[in-house]
């Protein structure tokens, strides 16, 4: 949700890191963003679960990768 919210606001995600235990927005806002971005017109709970699971895995891997670290790569991958 933290990433999707910032993405929708047009903010840069290059230096953003997930903040564990940080509460942002309401449950309704979270569901609205998930519905908007999951890619399925009328998703089931299972489809929302799979979407959030996949997104979390990808974002966790991205945060852990040295190749996505702005301190390591500088501005060579700006916006990647």
Net shape:
elongated
Structural class of the helix and strand makeup?
mainly alpha
Largest sheet: none
Span between termini = 19 Å
Strand proportion:
under 5%
Order of helices and strands: HHHH
What is the number of helical segments per DSSP (H or I, 4+ residues)? 4
Give the helix proportion (percent range): 40-55%
Number of domains: 1
Structural description of this entry:
- This protein has helices spanning 2-8, 27-37, 45-64, 70-73.
- It is mainly alpha-helical and 80 residues long.
- It has one domain (1-73).
- The mean pLDDT is 87.
What key attributes describe this structure?
80 residues; mainly alpha; 4 helices; 52% helix
Write the layout of secondary structure elements.
Layout: H1 2-8, H2 27-37, H3 45-64, H4 70-73
Give a short overview.
The chain is 52% helix and 0% strand. It contains four helices and no strands.
């Amino acid at each position: 949700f933290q990433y999707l919210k910032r993405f929708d606001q047009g903010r840069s995600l290059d230096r953003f890191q997930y903040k564990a235990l940080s509460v942002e927005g309401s449950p309704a806002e979270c569901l609205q963003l998930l519905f908007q971005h999951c890619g399925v017109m009328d998703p089931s709970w299972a489809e929302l679960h799979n979407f959030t699971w996949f997104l979390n895995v990808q974002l966790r891997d991205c945060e852990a990768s040295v190749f996505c670290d702005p301190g390591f790569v500088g501005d060579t991958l700006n916006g990647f």
